Amino acid sequence: MAPSNSGPPMPPASADLATTWQYLEEGVDHIMTKLQTGVSYSKYMSLYTVAYNYCTSSKMHGSEGGIGLGGKSGASLMGSDLYNNLTKYFVNHLQGLREVAETLQDEALLRYYAAEWDRYTTGANYINRLFTYLNRHWVRRERDEGRKNVYPVYTLALVQWKACLFIPIQRQQKLAGAILRLIENQRNGEAIEQGLVKKVVDSFVSLGLDETDTNKACLDVYKEHFEGPFIETTETYYNHESESFIASHSVSDYLKKAEERLKEEEDRVDRYLNTQTRKPLISKCEAVLIRAHSELMWDSFQNLLDFDKDEDLQRMYSLLSRIPEGLEPLRKKFEEHVKKAGLAAVSRLVGESASRGESGDAVEPKPYVDALLEVHRKNSDTVTRSFRGEAGFVASLDKACRDFMNRNAATGTSNSKSPELLAKHTDLLLRKSNKVAEEGDLEGALNRVMILFKYLEDKDIFQTFYTTRLSKRLIHGVSASDESEASMISKLKEACGFEYTNKLQRMFTDMSLSKDLTDQFKARMEQTHDDIDISFSIMVLGTNFWPLNPPGHDFIIPQEMQATYDRFQRYYQMKHSGRKLTWLWNYSKNELRTNHTNQKYILMTSTFQTAILLQFNRNDTLSLEELHIATSIPKDHLVQVLALLTKAKVLVSEEAGQYDLNPSFKSKKIRVNLNQPIKSDTKAESTEVMKTVDEDRKYVIQATIVRIMKARKTMKNQALLDEVISQLTQRFTPKVPDIKKAIDTLLEKDYIERVDGTRDTFAYLA
């Protein structure tokens, strides 16, 4: 503030209204028009004191020169005198500003308006503090008595600005129109003075008045005079621009344009609009830029997917996610796209098999799994990268994968093919000979198996194939590692629960117990039988946990093995009386040392191969009939075993049906593996698995019905069917006729009964 101001002398405390107002008016006018030249502290305090003295004087003054409010007296009249003179001053002051403003247009008008607004509101703030006493006592009392047209001095200044300057100028949309033209210029790429726009827009906000609370923000003026017209012109502008842009540009270009425009409007709110405008503005832009052209975007989505246009897909997702109905058509198209990709990948594999003269059944597990995983990986990446992992697109991906995983060119009408191929692939991964295990990425490969496992509808079929394959890995000692086996079981347990993997874990327990049993038996034999010269190990496997069946025919144990067999039988019966051992000769294996060749070899053989070869310790030449009598192996199976031995050149058959040891047998390896699977055994595996699955399903469905009925006590037929399907879907998809058969079985067994007088309601029998 400046150190001094010239002017009339400060009137005494008892001065009348005319003298008092003359002094105050000069000060008020200086503050309102010449504040930049400064006001001394002493002058400011003098003005404050004069206003205070007048308001607190108990003597009645004459009201000449004052406007006055009839019927008032004392301090009340004095307050109204000052208030009315102040009002009159604002009106006169604003009349001059209005006359200048009416001669101006566009940016010149905005500049003048903004400059005067700054000067006026700054001055009004100072004057408001000068008349603090008037505000605190007279104005408050008047408002408390219900006179809402009386305002604190600063609010009074704004009310007069609105009535005397803003409304007259804005009547022809002069101010708002000037702002809107500047905004349009900016949208067209021109630089504008954003600070100027912000000042004028902020004045619209400040002029809003809540009659009940003058301190409360009110946006009525802003919304009526600026926001409404602004939203309308925005709609018109973008309607025109988007239509003309699309007519001459690609959809990809339009996506970029729409994204840029939406960001510009967001920034516009941040720079110079009231934050309350954000929602209606962005909503209108979304309607014009996105909803109006959503059909076009949906139609072009497939093309973007086909050509892997990641950036465009991201933009399209980002834009369409802004409108409620925007994403659902994309999700459906994406689901169909993934499904087609999966079906096409499998069809190519089947076509390649056919071109090699193989049947559709000949699709190998690894290429099949790799093809499905590649489709999933590619589209899962798209969901993550382009659709931000949105739950709806994840669900579309899952549904499509479930479809092509369970029904494709390789599966045909079979529901067992996919579970079988996945189980076989897992078996190959978990074997010692697998390269993936050697490369150290076995855990990653197993995780990828679980991706596809999740989509299997018939997880019980996978379970049965997996159990069968696991049993063979354990029996033949070809697991890559116990850690990997445990890891896979843990993953299956996490996916399907304890019951799903209970048998698998018990199989490992049996293997551990069998190792201990073998060691104990050997120790006992060393104590009691020095003459034992056969290396022997045993696996005793629980019938309920291992999917193994004994041979369906008799078998004569070779005399070289008989003593050890008898000793173990006696030892086991002594250790576990009452248990019965069923010998699985079809899974047993042996090692034989050759004595008839110059080079000594170790032949790794099945027990049936062993039984045949040991016959040649006592005979030079044997016929098919003699071998059949000596071993009890059925002739059809015996022929296949002999075919393997002759193919390996261990035996020779110079005459039809006659077999001799080959003294000239040679091999590059000292250890020669003759124990190869027989084709009929391999084919029988699939048939056996499906028989087991069908049998297991009967009991699972029955157990589920009993569990449900025990909890519900009574239930209608349809509700029971729905609940059974719901509970079993995670494991397999039960067929309605199978559920009905299970209900009939449980009715016969008196687990449930029909409720009297009804045809379709069942009750649980405790």
TrEMBL record:
**Coiled coil as UniProt keyword:** yes
What does the entry list under GO cellular component?
SCF ubiquitin ligase complex
Protein's GO biological process: protein polyubiquitination; SCF-dependent proteasomal ubiquitin-dependent protein catabolic process
Coiled-coil annotated residue ranges, if any: 248-275
Which SMART domains does this entry report, sorted A to Z?
A: CULLIN, Cullin_Nedd8
The record's InterPro entries line, in alphabetical order, gives:
Cullin (IPR045093), Cullin-like_AB (IPR059120), Cullin_CS (IPR016157), Cullin_homology (IPR016158), Cullin_homology_sf (IPR036317), Cullin_N (IPR001373), Cullin_neddylation_domain (IPR019559), Cullin_repeat-like_dom_sf (IPR016159)
State the pathway, as annotated in the record: Protein modification; protein ubiquitination
Quote one Gene Ontology molecular function term.
ubiquitin protein ligase binding
One of the Pfam families matching this protein, by short name: Cullin
Question: Which keywords does the record carry?
Answer: Coiled coil, Isopeptide bond, Ubl conjugation, Ubl conjugation pathway
Database matches in Gene3D superfamilies:
Cullin Repeats (1.20.1310.10), Ring Box Chain A, domain 5 (4.10.1030.10), Winged helix-like DNA-binding domain superfamily/Winged helix DNA-binding domain (1.10.10.10)
Q: Which family does it belong to?
A: Belongs to the cullin family.
- Protein's name according to its UniProt entry: Cullin-1
Provenance organism? Candolleomyces eurysporus
